[in-house]
Amino acid sequence: MLRFLTAGESHGKGLVTIIDNFPAGVKIDEDFINDKLRLRQSGYGRGARQKIETDKIEFLSGVRGGLTTGSPISFFIKNKDYENWRDRMDPYKSVPEESKIHTPRPGHADFAGSIKFGLDDIRNVLERSSARETASRVAVGAICQILLKNFGIEFASAVLNIGGVGVEADEISGEKKKKGSELNSDPFALNLIDLFDEVISRNIKNSELRMLYSEHEEKAKAFIDKMKAEGDTVGGLITAQVKGVPVGLGSFTQWDEKLDAQIAMSVMSIQAIKSVEIGAGVKSAYLKGSECHDSIYCGSSGSFYRKTDNAGGIEGGMSNGEIISVTCAMKPIPTLMKPYLDTVDLNTCEAKKAFLERSDVCAVPAASIVVESAVAFSICYFFLKKFGGDGFAEIKRNYDGYCKNENKN
Ligand SMILES: Cc1cc2nc3c(=O)[nH]c(=O)nc-3n(C[C@H](O)[C@H](O)[C@H](O)COP(=O)(O)O)c2cc1C
Predict the structure, then answer these.
(1) What is the pTM of this model?
(2) What is the widest separation between alpha-carbon atoms in the chain?
(3) What domains, with CATH codes, occur in the chain?
(4) What is the DSSP letter of 401?
(5) Ligand 1 within 6 A of 47 CB?
(6) pLDDT > 90: percent of the chain
(7) Tens digits of residue pLDDT in 195-234
(8) Would you say the CB of residue 379 lies under 6 angstroms from ligand 1?
């Protein structure tokens, strides 16, 4: 069973990650991983922290001569900012009373975390609950993508809107994906988005906010600027897609073996993600059965296909061969630069304003890369479950054998 663990604090020395049960013989492309890490750090609206860090993966084990060995993969991502926090993050030096935090920020792990662990300094919670941890998850997702690329499985992600500026939530459904040329003639009829389409992927690549349309980007930037000036923050809507997934990843036989359920858990576990939809998602509730379900056809080559994709590529907890699409909402960043939110001192019960800590105004573009990575892990988990073997060649044999017979199963 593929699994991973992460450790590390936001301002500690760095992040340590262990991936267990990753097969041997997979050629590791370090540039691909570092590029995903760079994208996680970028995007309009990020705080000063991102100017300090240039995240790079440093393998500690499990990779030799450019190939995975089958042993646990471990890697380190350094926090350059640690130099500025050495004193406060030292494992032995005692923490001066005046630097302790007792006022939990609403919307963060601060309140429940410090009560749960009985901590008298909220920094012990916020250091670990911080989304700095998502750098580990992005590297794990990139390693999963490297394996899956060998089997024609590709991933893409984009920002649909920033605080409602961009594609409206009710314009999105999982109907059959539209090509960029069609979208250009009617750019706001966005029922259908194929993130792999050439025009759309170029738009995303050229956008500082990873948005589908440049006309949305300027407005969204202006909105972020306004939020920044007001000392406020903003969230947004993200989509991620996977293409080339063979029929039958995941299972209908047990609740926790369902692909959609595992994707939902992976994505929902990302800091600040508050909803996960597969395909038409919430919109399914408003459709008739005859409108919602994706009719099945067989082409002249004997392969099955659909004309719509409201199911988002998953039926009965299994991939059905169509594009898998996931849409999720990110809430606004909970650390605000002005004291809007009320809180209390946990020691004295005194009414206070939530404390200010250097922070992002908007991290939706970064989160889109994290979402893509989380989905990549879930797909890889089920891919290895289905075709698993200890080494790449064995997996390839299993995959090829299954795909030859896929339509006959
Ligand atoms: C990529 C990314 C960057 C984030 N940056 C910040 C930040 O700078 N400041 C902050 O307060 N929260 C930030 N968050 C959100 C918090 O980490 C998150 O809201 C908090 O841990 C509480 O978790 P919850 O929102 O899932 O309940 C970020 C989240 C992501 C995904």
Answers:
(1) 0.94
(2) 74
(3) 3-408 (3.60.150.10)
(4) H
(5) yes
(6) 78
(7) 998 888 998 998 999 998 878 899 999 999 999 999 999 9
(8) no
